[in-house]
Write a structure and sequence with these properties.
single chain, mainly alpha, 2 helices, 85 residues
Length: 85
């Protein structure tokens, strides 16, 4: 019994060199713009380190004013501040 093997169609693609800049593709004399694959969000969520630093800052200010509070309240205020809520 014979097994069928898929044959590659067309020319094999060349591997890109690391750090190489690709040229824009040309089609019938016109140059098409190549879109970047990198997505850019308007605003990213703050990371844990950023929240921790801001919560510590809020804690130190609260203690300096002599106010009562908890670390979880400081954390919540820091998250709200950094998210712009």
């Amino acid at each position: 019994m014979k097994t069928l093997k898929a044959k590659p169609k067309g020319k094999p693609k060349k591997a890109a060199k690391a750090g190489a800049i690709s040229k824009p593709k040309k089609t019938s004399g016109t140059v098409k713009a190549v879109k970047s694959r990198k997505e850019t969000a308007g605003k990213s969520e703050p990371g844990e380190v950023e929240i921790r630093k801001k919560a510590n800052e809020i804690y130190l200010q609260r203690i300096a004013r002599g106010e009562q509070g908890t670390p979880s309240e400081d954390w919540q205020k820091a998250e709200e501040f950094l998210r712009g809520s």
